[in-house]
TrEMBL record:
Domain CUE: 3-46
The protein's name: Fe2OG dioxygenase domain-containing protein
InterPro entries linked: AlkB-like (IPR027450), AlkB-like_sf (IPR037151), ALKBH3 (IPR032854), CUE (IPR003892), Oxoglu/Fe-dep_dioxygenase_dom (IPR005123), UBA-like_sf (IPR009060), Znf_GRF (IPR010666)
Annotated keywords: Metal-binding, Zinc, Zinc-finger
Length: 412
């Protein structure tokens, strides 16, 4: 879902002269395979299946010795318990052809070392407050909905349920502007509950304390970080998930900071670092326990993708009250100027803000607006953010930011 969305944005950056409708059609015909889509767009008559690249390790093995087939593993009730974790790991082997760098499991103590723009705090809220917040959200989630997006001219639904909260009535009044960017969750947007207000204060304090020691980019929101939006997600069973994506920046502006509070069951949070001209792609896994706060600093949304993958029930650390259910509250800061000056695409809807991520292209790291997608067809609207900076920035800040309108620090 969100992965296809990112692929379309990448192809738009690579082929600026190709109509967006053509790119969507080609991507649909290749079932989302970006490499195959690139082949077709470069040479439609040469759309043969790409040959698999050899694993570099084969050059260091004897040509006379064939690699043995992977051993099949059969698990029965007599399988020793102390070897079960090794057996489970072998069921899904690492495929170097798909992921050049072997995935790494990170902990509270190693997370910031490998992903400097993330910080994790455990036991964030007092025990009783975390329990009360979990109970309230689990009860409220009975009325939450599945978010819908338009991908390749068709409407798709998320596999989990969502609810969007606004801090004030003014934020609720802008829900129509948020419709395209946060899906149908915005059409049912509600005001912060008293308990959400109480949780918001320590979240803001933690974020602003951390931001005080970080270098701020000209395009980041100036001044204190204020959580005026909260997106709630509930995963009721271990197989409910959300695919690889970056959070929408349209109403948040470039380089947003987002704070994510986990309540209930412990689930894996998967992080995918995008490849750059100097750094290979890399996948990381970290477990987010009950009552933990993960802060995503800039440029996490621009340089990484994240997901909550489906898991087997035995892989999930259940909560004594919530069981397999995980509630996630992501606190965000909506920037009024980016909502007020959202460009309208030719479909008559707000365009979405994205980042060009292809390392080989000269525009890598720059921000652009494009059509969010419509049914039965999307338009070809495209606009660079730099062309709209005079509307978004005021006074002397315009001159400073216009010289530096991209993601300049992908190592952050």
């Amino acid at each position: 879902m969100a992965t296809s969305d990112f692929t379309i944005a990448t192809l738009v950056d690579m082929f600026p002269n190709v109509p967006l409708g053509r790119i969507r059609t080609v991507l649909a015909s290749t079932h989302g395979d970006m490499d195959a889509a690139i082949d077709m767009l470069l040479d439609p008559s040469n759309a043969r299946k790409r040959k698999a690249k050899p694993d570099i390790r084969c050059f260091f093995q004897s040509q006379s010795v064939a690699r043995p087939p992977p051993k099949k593993v059969h698990i029965t009730s007599s399988t020793p318990a102390d070897s079960l974790h090794l057996t489970m790991a072998s069921l899904v082997p690492w495929d170097p052809a798909k992921d050049p760098q072997k995935p790494k499991l990170l902990t509270l103590h190693t997370l910031n070392q490998h992903v400097p723009c993330l910080s994790l705090q455990t036991d964030f809220l007092p025990h009783d407050q975390a329990s009360d917040m979990l109970t309230e959200m689990m009860a409220a989630s009975a009325d939450w909905i599945r978010t819908k997006w338009v991908i390749v001219d068709r409407e798709v639904e998320s596999p989990h349920h969502t609810q969007l909260y606004g801090l004030e009535e003014a934020h609720l009044a802008r829900k129509a502007d948020l419709y395209t960017n946060t899906g149908t969750a915005a059409t049912n947007m509600q005001q912060f509950t008293p308990m959400l207000h109480a949780v918001k204060d320590p979240v803001e304090a933690a974020v602003n304390h951390a931001l005080a020691s970080r270098v701020r980019h000209p395009l980041e929101a100036p001044g204190p970080w204020v959580a005026n939006l909260a997106l709630g997600n509930v995963y009721r069973t271990s197989d409910q998930s959300v695919g690889s994506h970056s959070d929408t920046m349209t109403e948040l502006g470039p380089r947003p900071t987002i704070a994510s509070l986990t309540l209930g069951a412990e689930r894996v949070f998967r992080i995918k670092r995008l490849a750059t001209s100097t750094t290979p792609a890399q996948t990381f896994n970290v477990k987010l326990p009950h009552n933990s706060l993960l802060i995503m600093f800039p440029p996490f949304q621009e340089c990484y993708r994240h997901e909550v993958p489906p898991q087997q029930p035995w892989q999930v650390k259940v909560h004594p009250v919530a069981g397999e259910t995980r509630v996630n509250l992501t606190f965000r800061m909506m920037r009024a100027n980016y909502v007020r000056h959202m460009p309208q695409c030719r479909c008559g809807k707000p365009a979405v803000l994205r980042t060009a991520n292809r390392p080989s292209k000269k525009h890598v790291g720059e921000y652009f607006y494009m059509c969010a997608g419509s049914v039965p067809a999307s338009c070809s609207y495209f606009c660079w953010l730099r062309d709209r900076l005079p509307l978004l920035l005021e006074g002397a800040a315009t001159a400073t930011a216009s010289r530096d309108y991209g993601v300049d620090d992908q190592k952050s």
